[in-house]
């Protein structure tokens, strides 16, 4: 009798434990499961600028300044770990930090952590350094004050501060790089729970968060690289939210009983770059470079039916554009429209320029590097062929593409994508359109040797002012020049379609930190 | 005999060394990993730093020497993408590949051998001819296309079976297996069948050919004349000898199937070694590519070695010279 | 005089036992007919179809993904539907067949030539040369041909000639091994002794006397290999490391179709695969017949 009683007691204890555990663990309604397209290679916040690492960083850590996005993809800046930022002089900024913030392990957040984090970014060899490139030094003036000096007057330091996330110096000193990658400790709205590689990453809400308490109690990121699996997981309810619904499945997902599609303009613009400066160009063997003539470039630009490409290759899920910056970014010009589609005029222009039968040139295109790049470049070649410009497609495997076009000695025209995730096009203009080898750090991606002293001057001016409005005006001027010069042929701006279950309140971000779980809730 | 084994063993070592060198040379002709792994905004200084970390700034000869030393220590380098030992990455995915390969071989053998025996013994019946025709179709069919057709029928149209991924896994001895759960089995079915089909057809035809050859031998005629029952003739005398070439091919097929599974893994997004290889090729993750090729080569060479030895043991007609 | 000799040879074949068996074997005839059909398609097809689907100027993007003629939404110009660039499936497949047949024959001929030559030399000379060549053969035989082809393509990139190279790399070994074996058996026969005594040079002995007697297994291997090569090219193209997408390939068409499978756009994958299967079935039917015919142990 005694034995039975003891057994029952033990049994009851187990049951109670189980019940308690069940109550403690977040329910399915309090959990959001997100289907991504890949597992991060590292979850060290300073190591890299890869999307899926960034998506863990934004939840476990806080930046100095936060970007808040609205439904239309435009953003505003609010204080986060930095509460005030003032300019002392052209290259010196004083940042006041938030007091009373704690890391997940209880350690207090101080200026030392900011200085440490910036140094970590600088030391990264895998892409993190790009985040702090304009910063020359960071100094802790006080427990909650940091002085940042930039290399040159830099009007948009605030935009960069939105991408600088702060980790714990003490923790790193205790566990080292491997420890951080195994179990990151931040100040963010979510705490790290576990990472089973290629399967899932779990994060739980930080109940002691200094900001508004996150409404979702648990977030699980699951890498589902295969498009069909990812869509199927959403449709079956296995996941609540997925990135990048393939064009062909958008109708299926938006028509689903419990699912819908939310699409917003993405940060990348697909464009074609052509050699507009050199007398001889490698892709054209019959004499002078035809693209030197502005009429030829115009013909090229208006021969392409952007609407048809968007409809047939991208199922309608892209936006035609005439410039590299996206709406809302500094440098975007509101009244520039995409080049019109006019094949008759194109043929006319070619005849005037001396090419009545058109001409042939080699076009370097990547294969499977950008979304649907193969079909898109073929479609474009088709349109060009109809006005007489025969583009011989030189298909380069994705993994060799950048190495091939970077040196700039083989390329007449190439096809690429650029992102304005940061919110300012200056960096890209410097890399792509500044005369090559003239200024250090500029022209590095100028693979078609574009050279215009007017543009160089404007970019220099934009970079030497600490006044944001002056900078914006200069950049917009450059955009206008490039447009009239047909220096670059933008085709379309990506659309990012997200699939989600009905009832999930989710606002996508237009940068590389898309899944900001603290902004989500389930209704 | 011992001498023969020793000779083959040495040959094996030489082969592995040669393959390793060839693989190293070939893979170094791939794209520049630094450019691929860093974001497109990376400055030339960052690229140089990254290359230094990956050891790419040294001369090819230097890199080769380091490579050889590492291999001898059993270290095949860290993946550029995952920052983990390449070997570990491959071993983590091996159970997944093994699952579909073993299942496929099992299915193939279980169906092909009995059918092959029947068809070989009774080659002129209508059933035999039909089976033979069907097997011809299976051998002529592109595997990847067959997988796609299966997906079309069973996933898209009927919705009975999942079209990709692996089901729920159970962790056994530190490795993840999916055949022990119902969901796992559902995910295993289509990939295993796809992989098995060509195997099945080939083995069936081999068994049939072997049977037909053996049944014409004199000793069979003698056994029949002696009055041994047809059943015993078939299974007691003929089958054993007919199976010798089948069995040896079977062993060699195992290695080949692991590589062939790359296709199946790609179609069904099955997280095995083959898919890792294709992904690594696309992103120029050189250490993983080299590790895969080395491990695969070693596997084949070792299997060949074992099969050769077994063959000499089983078949007394083989001359060791 | 020569005409008579030739006629006699032809008559000899037509009246041989082999041809009799061929005429009475429906499978073999079917195989030969299929192969003939595909050869004709490869040679004359492009002239007969409505468009050159690989000339981008002839395509209209707005024709993309039209279904086959018996489904709703189809266009009577495109009987079996179109792919993502608006290519007519029938035309694309005809060009694809041409590519497959061309690659299949090229690779087989290269392998046959190289392999047979090496096998002859190896078997006849013996000694160190033989050990070396056979060592090479054994090493290569331990590796699946797909892996070897992948390795070559990884290093050298895409392109039609590179694929031919890659597939030839792994295909020559079977010939070498078989021919070597037969050569070793033949070289001790009387007619070889006789030729040597008469004073013919070694290469003449090899190629004029021994070669015709080792050709039989070579022909069988060749017929069966064409089908394998065609499937290998399709597989490599499907994986994305074979033919570039601007060139025709049945494997590439299947790969294209795979991406859109779930949207119900089935025809881009299914038809090219069927064509491939049909082509290889033809080769295998004939190859099987030849193999059984020439296998002395089945008599």
- What oligomeric assembly is this protein in? heterotrimer
Low-confidence stretches of chain A: none
Structural class of chain B: mainly alpha
The fraction of residues in strands of chain A falls at 15-25%
Distance between the termini of chain B: 10 Å
Brief rundown of the structure:
The complex is a heterotrimer of chains A (523), B (321) and C (299). Chain A has 523 residues and is an alpha+beta fold.
Task: Tell me what you see in this structure.
The complex is a heterotrimer of chains A (about 525), B (about 325) and C (about 300). Chain A is an alpha+beta fold and about 525 residues long. Chain A has helices at about 1-25, 50-60, 110-125, 155-160, 170-180, 225-235, 250-255, 295-300, 305-310, 345-355, 375-385, 400-405, 425-435, 455-465, 470-485, and strands spanning about 30-35, 65-70, 75-80, 80-90, 90-95, 135-140, 145-150, 190-195, 200-205, 220-225, 240, 260-275, 320, 360-365, 390-395, 415-420, 490-500, 505, 520. In chain A, β4 (about 80-90) and β5 (about 90-95) form a beta hairpin. The mean pLDDT of chain A is about 85. Chain B is mainly α and about 325 residues long. Helices cover about 75% and strands about 0% of the residues of chain B. The longest helix of chain B is centred in the last third of the chain and has 38 residues, at about 230-265. Chain B is globular, with a radius of gyration of 24 Å. The termini of chain B are close together. Chain C has a domain at about 100-300: Orthogonal Bundle (MetI-like fold), CATH 1.10.3720.10. Helices cover about 75% and strands about 0% of the residues of chain C. Chain C is elongated. Chain C starts with a helix and ends in a 5-residue tail after the last helix. The mean pLDDT of chain C is about 85. Chains in contact: A-B, A-C, B-C. Chains B and C meet through α1, α6, α7, α10 and α11 of B and α5, α6, α9, α10 and α11 of C.
Keywords:
heterotrimer; B: 321 residues; mainly alpha; two-stranded antiparallel sheet; 12 helices; 75% helix; C: 299 residues; MetI-like fold; 11 helices
List the helices and strands and how they pair.
The complex is a heterotrimer of chains A (523), B (321) and C (299).
Chain A: H1 2-24, E1 31-36, H2 51-60, E2 65-69, E3 75-79, E4 82-89, E5 92-97, H3 111-123, E6 135-142, E7 145-150, H4 157-161, H5 169-182, E8 190-196, E9 200-205, E10 218-223, H6 227-235, E11 241-242, H7 250-254, E12 259-274, H8 294-302, H9 306-312, E13 318-320, H10 343-353, E14 359-367, H11 373-386, E15 389-397, H12 398-405, E16 413-419, H13 426-433, H14 453-463, H15 468-485, E17 488-501, E18 504-505, E19 521-522
Parallel strand pairs in A: 1-10, 1-11, 14-15
Antiparallel strand pairs in A: 2-3, 4-5, 5-7, 6-7, 8-9, 9-10, 11-17, 12-16, 12-17, 13-17, 18-19
Helix pairs in contact in A: 8-10, 13-14, 14-15
Chain B: H1 2-27, H2 33-37, H3 44-54, H4 60-72, H5 86-121, H6 126-140, H7 143-157, E1 170-172, E2 175-177, H8 182-215, H9 218-226, H10 230-267, H11 273-283, H12 286-314
Antiparallel strand pairs in B: 1-2
Helix pairs in contact in B: 1-12, 5-6, 5-8, 5-10, 5-12, 6-8, 7-8, 8-10, 10-11, 10-12, 11-12
Chain C: H1 2-14, H2 17-23, H3 26-48, H4 89-125, H5 127-141, H6 145-156, H7 160-186, H8 190-198, H9 202-239, H10 250-259, H11 267-294
Helix pairs in contact in C: 3-4, 3-11, 4-5, 4-7, 4-9, 4-11, 5-7, 6-7, 7-9, 8-9, 9-10, 9-11, 10-11
């Amino acid at each position: 009798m005694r034995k039975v009683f003891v057994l029952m007691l033990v049994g009851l204890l187990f049951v109670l434990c189980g019940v308690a555990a069940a109550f403690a663990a977040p329910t399915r309604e309090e959990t959001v499961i997100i289907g991504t397209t890949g597992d991060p290679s590292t979850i060290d916040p300073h190591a890299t600028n890869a999307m899926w690492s960034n998506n863990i960083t934004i939840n476990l850590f806080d930046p100095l300044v936060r970007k808040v996005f609205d439904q239309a993809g435009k953003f505003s800046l609010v204080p986060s770990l930095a509460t005030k930022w003032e300019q002392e002089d052209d290259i010196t900024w004083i940042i006041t930090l938030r007091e009373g913030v704690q890391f997940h392990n209880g350690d207090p957040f101080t200026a030392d952590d900011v200085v440490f984090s910036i140094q970590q970014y600088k030391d990264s060899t895998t892409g993190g350094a790009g985040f702090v490139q304009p910063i020359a030094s960071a100094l802790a003036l006080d427990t909650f004050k940091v002085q940042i000096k930039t290399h040159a007057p830099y009007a948009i330091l605030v935009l960069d501060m939105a991408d600088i996330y702060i980790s714990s110096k003490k923790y790193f000193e205790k566990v080292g790089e491997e420890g951080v990658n195994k179990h990151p400790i931040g100040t963010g709205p979510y705490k790290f729970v576990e990472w089973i590689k290629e399967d899932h990453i779990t994060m739980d809400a930080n109940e002691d968060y200094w900001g508004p308490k996150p409404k979702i109690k648990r977030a699980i990121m699951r890498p589902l690289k295969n498009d069909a699996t990812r869509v199927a997981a959403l449709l079956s309810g296995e996941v609540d939210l997925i990135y990048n619904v393939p064009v062909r499945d958008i109708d299926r997902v938006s028509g689903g009983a419990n699912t819908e599609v939310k699409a917003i303009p993405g940060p990348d613009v697909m464009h074609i770059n052509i050699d507009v400066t050199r007398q001889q160009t490698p892709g054209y063997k019959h004499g002078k470079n035809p693209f030197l003539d502005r009429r030829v470039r115009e013909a090229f630009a208006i021969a392409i039916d952007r609407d048809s490409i968007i409809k047939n290759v991208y199922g309608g899920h892209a936006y035609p554009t005439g410039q590299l910056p996206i709406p809302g970014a500094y440098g975007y010009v509101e009244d520039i429209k995409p080049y019109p589609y006019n094949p008759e005029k194109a043929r006319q222009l070619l005849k005037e320029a001396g090419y009545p039968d058109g001409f042939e040139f080699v076009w370097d295109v990547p294969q499977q590097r950008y979304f649907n790049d193969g079909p898109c470049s073929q479609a474009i070649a088709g349109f060009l062929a109809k006005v007489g410009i025969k583009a011989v497609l030189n298909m380069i495997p994705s993994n060799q593409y950048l190495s091939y076009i970077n040196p700039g000695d083989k390329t007449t025209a190439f096809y690429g994508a650029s992102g304005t995730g940061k919110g300012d096009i200056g960096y890209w203009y410097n890399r792509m359109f500044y005369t090559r080898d003239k200024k250090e750090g500029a022209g590095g991606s100028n693979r078609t040797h574009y050279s215009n002293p007017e543009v160089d001057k404007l970019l220099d001016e934009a970079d030497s002012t600490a006044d944001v409005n002056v900078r914006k005006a200069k950049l917009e001027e450059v955009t206008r020049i490039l447009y009239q010069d047909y220096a670059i042929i933008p085709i379309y701006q990506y659309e990012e379609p997200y699939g989600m279950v009905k009832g999930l309140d989710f606002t996508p971000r237009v940068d590389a930190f898309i899944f900001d779980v603290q902004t989500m809730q389930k209704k | 005999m011992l001498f023969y084994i020793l000779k083959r063993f040495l040959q094996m070592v030489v082969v592995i060394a040669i393959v390793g060198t060839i693989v190293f040379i070939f893979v170094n002709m791939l794209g520049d990993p630094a450019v691929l792994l860093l974001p497109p905004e990376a400055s030339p200084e960052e690229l140089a730093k990254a290359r230094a970390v990956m050891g790419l700034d040294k001369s090819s000869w230097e890199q080769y020497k380091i490579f050889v030393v590492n291999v001898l220590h059993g270290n095949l380098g860290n993946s550029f993408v995952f920052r983990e030992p390449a070997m570990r990455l491959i071993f983590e995915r091996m159970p997944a590949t093994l699952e579909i390969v073993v299942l496929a071989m099992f299915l193939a053998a279980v169906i092909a051998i009995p059918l092959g025996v029947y068809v070989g013994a009774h080659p002129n019946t209508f059933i035999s001819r039909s089976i033979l025709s069907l097997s011809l179709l299976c051998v002529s069919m592109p595997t990847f296309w067959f997988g796609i057709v299966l997906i079309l029928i069973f996933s898209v149209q009927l919705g009975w079976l999942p079209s990709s991924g692996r089901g729920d896994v159970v962790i056994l001895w530190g490795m993840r297996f999916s055949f022990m759960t119902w969901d796992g089995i559902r995910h295993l079915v289509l990939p295993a069948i796809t992989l098995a089909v060509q195997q099945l057809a080939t083995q069936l035809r081999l068994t049939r050919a072997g049977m037909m050859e053996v049944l014409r031998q004199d000793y069979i005629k003698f056994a029949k004349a002696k009055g041994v029952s047809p059943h015993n003739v078939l299974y007691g005398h003929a089958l054993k000898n007919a199976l010798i070439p089948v069995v040896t091919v079977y062993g060699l097929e195992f290695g080949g199937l692991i590589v062939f599974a790359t296709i199946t893994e790609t179609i069904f997004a099955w997280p095995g070694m083959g898919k890792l290889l294709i992904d690594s090729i696309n992103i120029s993750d050189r250490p993983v590519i080299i590790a895969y090729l080395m491990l695969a080569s070693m596997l084949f060479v070792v299997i060949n070695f074992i099969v050769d030895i077994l063959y000499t043991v089983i078949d007394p007609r083989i001359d060791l010279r | 005089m020569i005409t008579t000799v030739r006629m006699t040879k032809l008559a000899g074949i037509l009246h041989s036992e082999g041809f009799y068996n061929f005429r009475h074997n429906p499978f073999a005839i079917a195989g030969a007919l299929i192969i003939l059909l595909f050869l004709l398609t490869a040679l004359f097809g492009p002239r007969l179809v409505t468009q050159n689907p690989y000339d981008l100027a002839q395509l209209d993007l707005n024709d993309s993904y039209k279904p086959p003629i018996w489904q709703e939404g189809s266009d009577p110009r495109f009987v079996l539907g179109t792919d993502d660039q608006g290519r007519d499936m029938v035309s694309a497949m005809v060009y694809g067949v041409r590519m497959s047949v061309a690659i299949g024959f090229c690779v087989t001929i290269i392998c046959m030539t190289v392999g047979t030559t090496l096998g002859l030399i190896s078997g006849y000379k013996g000694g160190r040369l033989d050990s070396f060549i056979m060592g090479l053969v054994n090493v290569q035989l331990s590796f699946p041909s797909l892996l070897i082809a992948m390795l070559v393509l990884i290093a050298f990139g895409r392109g039609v000639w590179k694929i031919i190279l890659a597939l030839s790399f792994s295909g020559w070994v079977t010939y070498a091994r078989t021919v070597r074996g037969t050569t070793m058996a033949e070289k001790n026969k009387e007619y070889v002794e006789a030729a040597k005594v008469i004073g013919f040079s070694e290469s003449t002995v090899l190629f004029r006397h021994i070669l015709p007697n080792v050709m039989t297994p070579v022909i069988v291997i060749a017929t069966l290999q064409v089908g394998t090569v065609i499937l290998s090219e399709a597989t490599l193209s499907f994986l994305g490391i074979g033919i570039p997408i601007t060139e025709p390939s049945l494997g590439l068409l299947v790969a294209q179709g795979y991406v859109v499978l779930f949207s119900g756009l089935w025809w881009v994958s299914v038809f090219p695969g069927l064509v491939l299967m049909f082509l290889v079935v033809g080769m295998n039917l004939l190859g099987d017949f030849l193999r059984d015919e020439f296998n002395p142990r089945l008599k």
